[in-house]
Design a protein that fits this description.
This protein has 215 residues and is an alpha+beta fold. It has a domain of 98 residues: Dna Ligase, domain 1. The chain is 56% helix and 14% strand. The chain has a four-stranded antiparallel beta sheet with strand order 2-1-3-4. Strand 1 and strand 2 form a beta hairpin.
């Protein structure tokens, strides 16, 4: 998120009423070891204009990230009198910088973090596209089912209307499987009748006797 884009969320966060135990507002840079960029007391904060103060915070974070030479995470924290965090807001500064990775552990972690974030964005984009295609396919399938049901209902209504006009009781239509079963049953009855009459199934297995040789 750019510097201008993050300013409004920071303003909204600062406008929230903070608990009474909040005595210090701190701008902190996160890394291998956290470092405080700036801090203000509760009395100082109450005297600031929220819009101007948010712009100053964003500028301070950008300047600090530029000095580090890499993208960094920054926290805006309300602390109590013991230094413990009560409320916290995080954003990134330095995005788009030409980072000079020097091989240190911190720079390697920063590079790995950017790689993980890039892969997460790609995965999220791919998942979103896949879900969108699934939704389109399901919508098309649902529309096709509705269309087929409408055609079926129209044919059934037409059949019932014809039955009503002829004054005959409605006879359920046979399915293709029912007709096929009846056809097979008919073939079996014919085959059985032919077998009983000796037309089929009566062929003798004995071979004809050969003529005797003349002496």
């Amino acid at each position: 998120m750019g510097a201008r884009a993050i300013q409004k969320p920071i303003e909204r966060w600062l406008q929230r009423e903070s608990p009474e135990q909040c005595v210090t507002l701190a701008l902190v840079c996160a890394g291998m070891a956290e470092s405080n960029v700036a801090a203000w007391s509760r009395q100082q904060f109450d005297g600031f204009l929220i819009g101007d103060f948010a712009a100053e915070l964003v500028a301070s974070a950008e300047d600090h990230a530029t000095g580090l030479g890499r993208e960094s995470r920054y926290f805006l924290r309300w602390l109590d009198d013991q230094g413990a965090t009560v409320l916290s807001f995080m954003w990134r500064a330095g995005e788009g910088l030409n980072l000079n990775l020097d091989g240190s552990a911190e720079s390697q972690i920063a590079q790995l973090q950017r790689h993980v974030e890039a892969m997460s964005r790609l995965n999220a984009t791919g998942t979103s596209m896949l879900l969108e295609h699934y939704q389109e396919a399901l919508a098309a399938q649902a529309a096709r089912i509705v269309s087929l049901e409408q055609v079926r209902d129209a044919y059934e209504l037409e059949r019932l209307q014809k039955v009503a006009e002829l004054g005959e009781p409605a006879i359920p239509q046979e399915s293709q499987m029912d007709r096929l079963a009846k056809t097979i049953e008919g073939f079996e009855r014919v085959s059985s009748a032919l077998a009983k009459s000796g037309v089929i199934g009566s062929t003798s297995t004995s071979s004809p006797s050969s003529p005797k040789a003349s002496s």
